[in-house]
Amino acid sequence: MALLFVTLLLVPAITAQEPATAWDDEHSFSWEYDFQTGYISTSPLFTGEQLLVRTSGNDEPAVTAFDLAGDTIWHHSNIASTNNDMSPLLSVQAGQGQCGSWPDMVLVGWTSGLVEALAPSNGTVLWSTQSEVIGWGVTGQLALDGEFVVIPTRQGVGQYCLADGQQQWWTETGLGWRNGVTVDELGYFVGDELGHLWHVDRTGNATSHALQLGKIRHAPLVTQAGILIHAQAVAGSTIAVFDPLNTTLLQQIPAGSSPAIPSVRGEYVVTGDSSNLRMLHCTSLCNVIDMTPFHTNGEIAWFDDGQILAPSNLPESTWGIFSIHDQENLTYSSIDVGLYGYGTAAPIQFSVGLTTFTVFGNDQSIIRVFSNIEEVETSSLEEFDWGTQGLIFMIFILLGSSCAFLLSGKREWFLRTSSLLALILVLLIFPDLSSQWSKSFDEQFPEKSSLEEWNEQWPDEWLGTQIVIFEINGVEHSIGGFVGHDDVFSLTQAACKELEIELTSDLTGIGWYVESIDGIEGKGWEFSVDGSKGIISADNSIVGATSIVRWTPA
């Protein structure tokens, strides 16, 4: 009965720690701003301590900066830009090169052909450059390449210095709309309205490949399988993979009409159209993992926790949130954030201190901001204190009973009560013993580092994904781009398969034990997650969406 009483005391402390899962429970509405007219067609941008939102399609196309409380800091307009501005804002960190040095800034491309560099703090124009206008000007995604910004103009591609906006060269390509540019080791890739995929090297020499699949209205994606595009045709669309070295079309996957702007994260690509949202896994080929009915035609957001959010471009529609599970299927749910109707701008998510902000904007030119404060588990600690007080109360009762039984000569009852007393004392002091043992272990076997850091030599495609490092015979073998793994063991298995490294393991009573990696057994293998040594089995060690796992021989 005493043990049952102790158990009941501990129940509130356990159940209080169960997290809420619904959007409304996790995210609190903070503020909104109604621009009254125009559209928000591209994702907002958070830089420094300010939220930047661009609006277009009204009498005063502009970029407006807000603080986290929703107050306007500055407003910069371009009345000459009268069309729908769809070139995403581009944040640039301070740096220097042969062209000179530059501060932190935000680059804005306008349909008037103007490209401006703005100071994030006050909206001051640091420099500007004018490109050609044929009906409209800049509508696609700009890209950074070292000390240069690469600008896809209405009918070409140009390279400009970040320091002063001076043009280094400009090359004519095809007539484009939302013709974003992508940078890779070979140079630059851009598409046009006739379905040509252009490659421009870093000296400005251009080569055209007529894919004849439809209009290319997004920045081509660089994947392990090749250059991926989602081309829009009169009826339907085609997801295609192109080999730039052999100039051959490797794959064609039929899709729905009016494609969205695809997004890549490591080995995974998400696409959308008027019919479905698809997840593709791209290694030697791009394979469709799963798809779910959903109507989206604009930007798609991929958050660091692996969740995908997309606007539904329909009247009175809500937003879709997607997650990938077990590397092979998508789960979908609709979320109501209070914004309804047509939308093409992707939401953004960023953290300041313990608070995570999520920002939505749509074609009604309204932004809504939600916050999620990471709570310190004070409530659960408070519940545990009640249990502790109950245990202490039981100790006094058992201590008094034991003394009474001992003095009265009831030896059997004395042994029973004293045994139960000893058990409760162990329950109370066990956390402290565990903590002291862990501290002593760390002092005797200190970690190599307290944090696993990003390696600048890794490809940018690994940013925001899961990464595994193997130290084999003094050489590091790294592989990234993984998404959706929940534990170290499954992530390690995927990494070994990708690197073609042999992995042998054995299932023990406490989980999977890695015996050898690449044929090396020795005294065993140890792993760390984000710099912290693993103290339980690999299959029971949880990894996050951006974790870095390192394996070293013992």
Give the integer mean of the pLDDT values. Answer: 85
Give the helix/strand class. alpha+beta
Rg of Cα set: 29 Å
- CATH T-level topology of the domain at 460-553: Ferric Hydroxamate Uptake Protein, Chain A, domain 1
What general form does the structure show? globular
Tally of individual helices? 5
CATH architecture of the domain at 460-553: Beta Complex
- By CATH reckoning, the class of the domain at 460-553 would read Mainly Beta
Unreliable runs, pLDDT <50, ≥5 residues?
1-22, 376-384, 441-450
Largest sheet: 5 strands, antiparallel
Span between termini: 47 Å
Please report which band the strand proportion falls in: under 5%, 5-15%, 15-25%, 25-35%, 35-45% or over 45%.
35-45%
3D structure, described in words:
Helices cover 17% and strands 40% of the residues. The protein is built from five helices and 42 strands. The protein is globular and about 105 Å long.
Question: What keywords describe this structure?
Answer:
alpha+beta; 42 strands; 554 residues; disordered N terminus; 5 helices
Task: Write a brief caption for the model.
This protein is α+β, with helices and mostly antiparallel strands and 554 residues long. Helices cover 17% and strands 40% of the residues.
SSE layout and pairing:
Blueprint: H1 2-15, H2 23-26, E1 28-34, E2 45-47, E3 50-55, E4 62-66, E5 72-77, E6 90-92, E7 95-97, E8 100-102, E9 105-109, E10 114-118, E11 125-130, E12 143-145, E13 148-153, E14 156-161, E15 167-172, E16 181-184, E17 187-191, E18 196-200, E19 206-210, E20 215-216, E21 221-223, E22 226-232, E23 237-243, E24 248-255, E25 263-265, E26 268-272, E27 276-282, E28 286-293, E29 301-302, E30 308-311, E31 319-325, E32 329-335, E33 348-352, E34 355-361, E35 366-373, H3 378-407, H4 411-444, E36 466-472, E37 475-482, H5 488-499, E38 503-508, E39 511-517, E40 525-529, E41 532-533, E42 548-553
Parallel strand pairs: 36-42
Antiparallel strand pairs: 1-35, 2-3, 3-4, 4-5, 6-9, 7-8, 9-10, 10-11, 12-13, 13-14, 14-15, 16-17, 17-18, 18-19, 20-22, 21-22, 22-23, 23-24, 25-26, 26-27, 27-28, 29-30, 30-31, 31-32, 33-34, 34-35, 36-37, 38-39, 40-41, 40-42
Helix pairs in contact: 1-3, 3-4
